[in-house]
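Notes continue from the previous slide.

Worked example: a multi-chain complex. Inputs as given:
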Amino acid sequence: KQEVTQIPAALSVPEGENLVLNCSFTDSAIYNLQWFRQDPGKGLTSLLLIQSSQREQTSGRLNASLDKSSGRSTLYIAASQPGDSATYLCAVRRQGAQKLVFGQGTRLTINP
Amino acid sequence: DGGITQSPKYLFRKEGQNVTLSCEQNLNHDAMYWYRQDPGQGLRLIYYSQIVNDFQKGDIAEGYSVSREKKESFPLTVTSAQKNPTAFYLCASSFGQGAGYEQYFGPGTRLTVT
């Protein structure tokens, strides 16, 4: 059974810092891994999708890496801003399955 | 303006009543999904549909029902058999069954049953 873990559960940093969010999964047989952002009371916004054959994806100040063999992904946020404050979720799609398996998220607070 | 819409945003019901949550997409996506989000438990899949007139149970389908009569629409009914219906419900969609497809989410419906 695929399990996804995100540590830490909450993180608070001052504005301008570069930071890394972690995601680990137990079964390396995945199609892809997706990072999402969720603001309080809102739906999920897709940030980055990494295919199993890829090592990383970049979008603006965001960079996501994938190490399938070790079951780890990281989301790097450069030059953090107060507007980056949200909960960040990672989810994996196991091979042969339609559904995403989600981690419980990291609640990020960027202090001005 | 393409996207996924869910209505209503907030829904209140008395225990014992069935309630239907709406999900519509104009992204021309084939697959649609319903997830439930509870504090501290992450998102869990309720039902999904890969094509019209076909759907499969997810991890927590008991007490829920769905239909897929149109490609654009995937309504979820929360029945009185669902023991703990109060939650945040999220609808998602994606292109087809291929491995590379992203899932896109709607804004959610918060259901409160008293």
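Summary box: The first strand of chain A starts at residue 4 and ends at 7. The mean pLDDT of chain A is 95.
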